[in-house]
Amino acid sequence: MTTPPPRPERCDACGKPDALPTIYRPGGLEYLCPACTSRAALRDSAGAHLHALLWPAVETWAQHWHAAGLKPGDLAALLDLEGGYWHPLGALAREGGAEDAVREMLEPKRD
Which of 46, 23, 18, 21 is nearest to 34 (CA)? Predict the structure, then answer.
């Protein structure tokens, strides 16, 4: 016996009616339309790319400071904090947080 194809639902992201179940994150089933499925896949690809770029730098940093005497728990705490402090000017105290920082980074450079 063959299972019937899933019935289209409303998109969880935009509300369009042509959404199908999509599992693209651990533990998550979302109904996404084709456009939102594309955006979700691009976002996930960008996240994987960022992770691949950062991993070697963070690994080298962790090895260096562990050899200098910091415990893994101390390094982990610093790494956890880094998500909120990665802007070149220090802590992201502005309301928009990381989104404002990214927008600033994407603006044309002024000489």
Answer: 18
pLDDT tens track for 65-75:
999 999 998 88
Average pLDDT, the chain: 81
d(CA 16, CA 78): 42
**What's the 3-state SS for 9-38?**
ECCCCCCCCCEEEEEEECCEEEEECHHHHH
Residue 49 shares a structural domain with residue 75: no
- DSSP character at residue 93: -
Looking at 10, 26, 53, the residue that finishes a domain is 53
Q: pTM score, two decimals?
A: 0.67
Residue 18 falls inside a structural domain: yes
Q: Residue 80: which domain range?
A: 71-111
